[in-house]
Amino acid sequence: MDITTFMNTYVENYIRRIDYYKKLEGYVYQLCQRQMDENGIRCIVSSRVKPVSSLRDKILYRNKIVGFKNIDDIHNDIRDKVGIRIALYFPPDSVEVEKIMYSLFEIVEEPARFENNTLQYDSRFSGYRAWHYKVRLKSKKFSDVDYDGEVIEIQVASMLMHAWAEVEHDLAYKEPDGGISDLEYALLSQLNGLVHTGEVILEQLKIAMEKRIEDNNREFLNHYELASFIYKNIPHETKVNISQPTLGRVDILFSLLKSINKHHPKAVLNYLTSIENDTSCHAISYRIIEKILAENEKAYCIYFDIISPIREPLIGSYSIDFEKKYRDNENQINIFLLKWVALEGYIRNNTKEESFDIRKVSSKLQDLLGEGIGQQVLEAYKMRNRIVHGIQVPDKQKLREAINGIDKVLQAIDNLEKSNDYDKKIV
Asked: Which domain holds residue 84?
């Protein structure tokens, strides 16, 4: 079989499955768009399924380079039938985008990093600068469709670089054998130089924006400003130590801060200071929200009001089933959370360390208050997390048991405080 036969068979199979590729494209596009927005990254996400004519052209072009011997060779080589582009306003955000890629997808191969001159013609400038990810979904289904492991290509670059790449790709990449003149190559090179200059200006624009939003007398206008402020004011070591996206659900954090009138630099800096000794690997938004929830019971109600419409809180899936069970048990849940807030407030107020370890605390309480107390505190803490982060709603019986358990702990603490040998600090 010659390349024409291979290609025709492959393209016919592709056409038969085009609806599948379009559904996959739509799903991955929405996934990327949502994650960029939630993490406060300014960008434009676009997507496409490879047109049949482009697929034919690429097969013929790649055949000149690698020499396809069968259909499997074509399938293994052409891995961008579904493509996503993330065009960043600010090039430095590519660091956080990479964390998002690793958290969202299975990375099939080492990302391609184009950071030096990769042009096929002489150029005095740096050429194409971008990051290409070959990925698969982690789930076996998407939008009720069985996923067959199809590889998706996600390209990340600045908006300016994406625009230049489109021009260069159509004029030079598709005609590598002398299709355009030396003058056209020279002009493409000069245009590339302007793009790199533009990227430097974009980075300066980001710095200017960061200076503007640091004014303590103004409020953050949106979660993008909040994200920029937090990212600038956390230590580099903290960013490195968090393998998941550094900020996490900054959109939810912004809504919560705004609801309690703390969406301004001074308040956020105070929260950042309060978590600076926290060595956990959780995203920054998660840690700050935990601090806010610990301050008073009203914060829990506000938090649920925020996440209910979007049905997607900080960690869990917050499904419709979760919402229904929550509403059915709302009174019991509210009592449980009020009890927990009282217990958590006591623990935080009587803990020497800025960030307490619940296992150490429960162990100490068990030593102080007797057998089983520490385990009750630990189980109540786990239940609180499952509820607050949309993971699971306990049944009424378990909620009643947890409420009674916290009452016993609070009563035991009250009795201990009245004794003469009480050590005020737990840890």
From this structure: 3-203
